[in-house]
Amino acid sequence: MDFTASAAQLLNIKADSLILPTGPQLKDSADALDKSLDGAISSLIKAGDFSGSSGETLVMHIPGVSGKRIILLGTAGANSQQQQIKVIGAGAAALLKTPSVKAVWVGEGLSDDSEWQAGIVARSIQAASYQYAPVPKSVKKSKPKKLKNLTYWAPSKADATAAKKGLIYGAAVGNGMNAARQLGNLPANICTPSFIAAEAKALTKGQASSRAKSRAKVSTSVLSEAQMRKLKMGSLLSVSAGSVEPGHLIVIKYQGTKASTKPVVLVGKAVTFDTGGISLKPGGGMDEMKYDMCGGASVIGVINALIETQMAVNVVAIIPAVENMPNGNATKPGDVVTSMSGQTIEVLNTDAEGRLILCDALTYAERFKPDTVIDIATLTGAVISALGKVTAGLLSNDDQLAEQLLSSGTRSGDRAWRLPLYEEYDELLKSNFADIANIGGPQAGTITAACFLARFTKKYKWAHLDVAGTAWLSGAAKGSTGRPVPILMDYLRSKAG
Ligand code: BES
Ligand code: MN
Ligand code: ZN
Predict the structure, then answer these.
(1) Is 285 in the pocket of ligand 1 (CB under 6 A)?
(2) pTM recorded for the entire structure
(3) What is the pLDDT of residue 62?
(4) Can you tell me the mean pLDDT for 123-139?
(5) Does residue 393 have a pLDDT over 90?
(6) 335 annotated as ligand-binding
């Protein structure tokens, strides 16, 4: 998809679709357009065909000109960024339903922040263009999307310049989301820990050799189980013990600025299938546990977007990738394992496996002397009870970092909400037989899971995003969402300055 920005005469831009955000009152460019069309738009409003309410769409064909259409996009009442993002999403969906090849998006009538708005437009168009690439290939072919080119029309030259930046950023975020979605949607018999490791390597291959044109240096290394054993990652290895698929610790380094700048370390949980282990999950809906690697997939999506934008940040991605299965070698409830940090863990429930792989990855993160560490994990069912499928859970040992992430969530529409890490919750993790138990009982499950992680993150600023509710949708719309790529990218972008 090609994105450009322009402040040229709107009607001089050649396109087969024009997306026009407007309320019931036509203003500025919408009004001018209406006048040049002998009131075709205002008469639709008068007749009651289009009310201009938030997210409403109406496709109209311009009389006398075949194949040209205007997509009216209602904006009334869309005052918050969240509402505006929804409106843009509805416009992108309506556009992608048409056979349009080249479109113009009128960057007026919704938000005055052209850079932000163009970013959301490009991201939404990329996300609306996503089609699952079936593996193995199916005989049923889906119709390819036709849209090739989108011009973002801005009301001034300065706005067009700002919009251009937004388009590049937003398209990369959208592509990163789609990369994460594809990995998430792949079945677990294809998307194994080794498969994710190979994808991570493929992502950075060729990057090293094309250094001349791309500033950033990127590289992937993968630790084997033998190497992890040498590092004493007994907690992580206790999860992969019950699977015939070997576990991997994937490390991707993205250096977009000077080497002395401390990196942001992103740690993404990648349990390619979570049966629960010996603490076996009930059967209903268990297929959705193929999505238990979405934290890791989002981190790969972020690296994808960083490479595309060549953003001036340093990031290290750490992805512990394992399968949680119950074979004869599997960890049993009551087993005590020793983590890389030296702390012993009583595994009271083998289904609380995410924290067991994350704790060793978080200890490993120390060697990169991080500025900040953020882990992303489909960690608890409890976060769905608390926040539903709308908002990610955020827990942090640093107030400023938490505030920054909350505002990145608002700006990107990929929102999070903070929960506390009070010591009263940590006390629920007491074990009679080890330094810590891996579960804290039936109450406050999202918080006790984060308290567990907090025992391993004392040496740096850290935040945890529990995305069990937001990383994928269930039911008829079942599929990976690409979250939390947008909030992470917004945070990194604010770091890049
Ligand atoms: N991957 C699951 C969390 C999950 C459950 C995500 C349902 C989305 C939907 C995680 O490994 C898990 O099983 N957590 C347990 C923890 C419990 C045993 C303390 C949970 O939430 O039930
Ligand atoms: Mn589990
Ligand atoms: Zn899990």
Answers:
(1) no
(2) 0.98
(3) 85
(4) 96
(5) yes
(6) no
Pairing of strands 270-274, 344-347: unpaired
pLDDT digits (tens, 9 = 90+) for 140-161: 888 889 999 999 999 999 999 9
d(CA 421, CA 404): 18
> Cα–Cα distances in Å, from 334 out to 345, 348, 349, 392, 433?
9, 5, 8, 31, 9
To test ligand 1's pocket by mutation, which of 380, 384, 451 has the most ligand atoms within 8 angstroms of CB?
380
For ligand 1, atom 3, name the residue with the nearest CA.
380
In whole angstroms, what is the distance from residue 319 CA to residue 307 CA?
A: 18
Atom of ligand 1 nearest to the CA of 276: 13
Q: Which residues in the chain are classed under CATH 3.40.220.10?
A: 2-177
Would you say the C-alpha torsion 386, 191, 168, 55 has a positive or negative sign? negative
Ligand 1 atom closest to the CA of 281, numbered from 1: 13
Question: CA angle, corner 438, sides to 435 and 439, nearest 5?
Answer: 120
Which H helix or E strand runs over 277? none
For the chain, how long is the longest CA-to-CA vector? 81
The atom number, within ligand 1, closest to the CA of 438 reads 19
How far apart CA 268 and CA 443 sit, in angstroms, is 25
Helix then strand then coil, in percent of the chain rounded to 5, is 40, 20, 40
Higher pLDDT, 401 or 11: 401
Determine the topology of domain 186-495 in CATH: Aminopeptidase (3.40.630)
Domain with CATH 3.40.630.10 in the chain: 186-495
Please state, in angstroms and rounded to a whole number, the distance separating the CA atoms of residues 298 and 196. 12
Q: Known catalytic residue: 355?
A: yes
pLDDT, tens only, 396-427: 999 999 999 999 999 999 999 999 999 999 99
Contact 484, 190 (CB under 8 A): no
Homologous superfamily of the 2-177 domain (CATH): Leucine Aminopeptidase, subunit E, domain 1 (3.40.220.10)
Q: Is 69 a catalytic residue?
A: no
291: nearest Cα among 389, 169, 396:
389
271, 286, 324, 351, best to mutate for ligand 1 pocket (most atoms within 8 Å of CB): 351
383 CA to centre of ligand 1 in angstroms:
9
